[in-house]
Structure formats: C-alpha cells, structure tokens
Specification:
Radius of gyration: 21 Å
Order of helices and strands: EHEEHEEEHEHEEHEEHHEEHHH
Shape: flat
Number of strands: 13
Largest sheet: 4 strands, mixed
Strand order of the largest sheet: 1-8-9-10
Structural class: alpha+beta
Strand content: 15-25%
Distance between the termini: 30 Å
Helix content: 25-40%
C-alpha cells in the first residue's frame, strides 16, 4: 500500500560538473561524426582531471575526422562551459586521444545483411517514465533540481560579475501528500564561486534562483536551506575532482523516481539501444500519460546484441491505468517499430543533436525545430486514443 505522506529527494549537477564535462565532450564527438555521416558509429568515453582531457573509444566514420578535430571539439566544449581557471583551462589543458576503429565483430552483429535487419548494438534493458507531477510530465524533484542549476548557469554566462563558477550541484527534498508533491522540505545548492565571496554572499546570490524555480509557496524553511554547507567552494571542476563519461545516469533520467536499466547515454551513437531505446521508452510513456490513459507509466524494453526486435515490452501504470496493460503493450508495438532502425527513423535520431542533452537531463525538455529532443513529442496521443477507444 502506498503511503499517504512521504519525502522524496533528487539531485542535479551543472554543465561544469566534472562528469558532465565528460558527457558534453563525448556527445560533441557523436555530433561531429553524425554531422559528417549520419550512419557513423561512435562509442567514445572522456576523462578529465587537472588540466588534462583524455578521449578513448571506437568509431566508424569519415577518415577526415582525426585527432586534431577531436581535440578541437573537446576544447570548444570546455570553452563553452566556461573553464578558464588555472587548474582547468580550455586552451591550456593537455588533450590525449585514444580513439580507434570499431571492432569488426561488433559491426557484423549490428549491420544489416541479406535478409537480416540491423540488430541492436548491445544487450540490455531500458526504461522510460512519465507522470503528471509537472507540465513536462516529469517527476517534480529532478525537474526543479535541473531548473535551479539552469537558472544559475544562465546568470553566470550572462553576467561576468556574478561571482559564480561552472561547477555546481542542487538537491531537493519534496514532501508528498496523497501521492502529490506539495512543497520543498529542504533544498541544497553547492556552487563554485570567486575567491572573494563569503558563504553568506553566495547564499543570497543563490536564493532568488531557488525561489524563482519552485512553484509559489514551495520554498523550504530557512533552516532547511543549505548553500555550500562546507563553507567554501573555490577549487572545483576537474581540478577538484576527476570526471568520467556516464557517471550521472540517474541525473540524466528521472532522479531515482523510476527504474534505470544501467546503461549511460552520452558518447553513444543512436544504434546503441542504451540510448535510443531509453529515448523511445520515454516517448511511449509520455504519450500514454498525455493521452490520459494513466497518471504515471513506466515502460521497460529489453534487447539482445545483433537481434532486431525487442525481446520484451513491459508496461506498468501502477494500478491506475484506464486500459488493460496487456492491450496497451500490444497497441504500442503496433504503433511504433521498436527495432533499432525503426526507433531511429521514427524519432529521426541520426543527426547531430546530442551535445545539448549532456546537462540538465535528457528528458522533460521541449522538442526543438531541428529535431533535438524528438522523444519529447506528443504526436502519438491521437493514435493511442483512436486505437484504444
């Protein structure tokens, strides 16, 4: 039985967090290859530490993209994020490239040949989720955690005297009553800042961003509002902590409010179902909720490497669905081709749209005119209603 009152917490990290720098660089590499060849294959990881950037992985794509182009892409990412610090500088950092051609064993399992359709790029399980807690049909704690950090980043980029640095984290604990969020029980924000700022100065600079990001009346009590609890956050980013691609998968998805299959997204081209199937699962779940077929919905997909169609599709509407879940599952399979090729074609994923996903969540974003965040579209609603009427 679900409790009537409880607390739930989610966190977000900024674009300047060491792990998010790595996600951004890895996804910029994906975009670089897809811009040159929409059929390119990419699986690239990034590591950052004090004035050092390391790229490693496998690719299949245009030969004119070499180490120089990859290095330039990495430096541009770091510059755009805003790192010009002594311990991590976009121009001064040492960049090392260890990227080689994709394994022929993997390629032959994935490529279409003869009567064999293109297979999944790996085995695994992927989840998608949607709920009515926010207009974006996302869980409220992760939605507002992202919103705070985006607001801080906009101020930092727009005001050179903001005193804020690129590295930041937010964490929100929301109180739920009868399954619905009603306000913040606590808010934690840690942000890198200039040497001369005291903790109280940082607190007052952060406060308006938190208040503006939350619904009216949701701000927590003053004693539960924590800003830089350690008291000082001058040394940050890769100079303070090593970063790696794919270490913030819960931040990337639903903040812990829904299951996660375990696979990271960044640095992978859309033939990898870790990425594309998680996107289409969100797309399906969001359209189910938007069609008023459920208040919340989770969808699981499972794949085997080299096999085209999913091994399973599981739908859970948490006992609140307005149609039979088995019937809903069959309808979704009828409406959307969930093979790797079918997903990419339906969502138009073979394009350079991924660097923008690397911070502030892959889900809950607005679909963009150039095809970015296509998995957030609600163009399946009418078809679902018609099929299930």
């Amino acid at each position: 039985m679900e409790r009537s009152e409880y607390l739930f917490t989610s966190e977000s990290v900024s674009e300047g967090h060491p792990d998010k720098i790595c996600d951004r660089i890895s996804d910029a590499v994906v975009d670089l290859y897809l811009a040159a060849d929409p059929q390119a294959r990419v699986a690239v990881e990034t590591l950052v530490t004090t004035n050092r950037i390391v790229l490693a992985g496998e690719v299949r794509g245009p030969e004119e993209i070499g180490p120089d182009e990859l290095e330039q892409a990495a430096r541009e990412c770091v510059r755009d994020i805003g790192y010009e610090q002594e311990g991590f500088h976009w121009r001064k950092a040492d960049v090392q490239i260890y990227v080689h051609n994709q394994s022929v064993d993997i390629a032959q399992g994935v490529d279409a040949a003869g009567n064999k359709d293109e297979g999944a790029g790996d085995q695994g399980i992927m989840f998608g989720y949607a709920c009515r807690e926010t207009e974006a049909l996302m869980p409220a704690p992760i939605h507002y955690s992202h919103k705070i950090l985006r607001s801080l980043a906009e101020t930092r980029h727009g005001d050179p005297d903001s005193g804020l640095g690129p590295d930041a984290k937010s964490q929100i604990t929301l109180k739920y009553v009868d399954g619905k969020p009603v306000g913040a029980a606590s808010v934690v924000v840690s942000t890198q800042h200039d040497e001369g700022l005291e903790q109280d100065d940082v607190r007052e600079r952060v406060r308006p961003h938190v208040i503006a990001s939350l619904p009216d009346g949701w701000m927590c009590d003053e004693k539960e509002f924590y800003v830089n609890p350690t008291g000082r956050f001058v040394i940050g980013g890769p100079d303070g902590d090593t970063g790696l691609t794919g270490r913030k998968i819960i931040v990337d998805t639903y903040g812990g409010a829904a299951p996660h299959g375990g696979g990271a997204f960044s640095g992978k081209d859309p033939t990898k179902v870790d990425r594309s199937a998680a996107y289409v699962a969100r797309y399906l779940a969001k359209n189910v909720v938007a069609a008023n077929l459920a208040e919340r919905c989770v969808i699981q997909l499972a794949y085997a490497i080299g096999v085209s169609q999913p091994l399973s599709l599981y739908v859970d509407t948490y006992g609140g669905g307005r149609v039979d879940e088995e019937r809903l599952s069959k309808t979704l399979l009828d409406l959307v081709d969930l093979s790797p090729r079918g997903i990419r074609q339906h969502l138009d994923l073979n394009r350079p749209i991924y660097a923008r996903t690397a911070a502030y969540g892959h889900f809950g974003r607005a679909p963009e005119e150039d095809g970015g965040f296509s998995w957030e579209r609600l163009d399946l609603v009418d078809a679902l209603k018609a099929a299930l009427s």
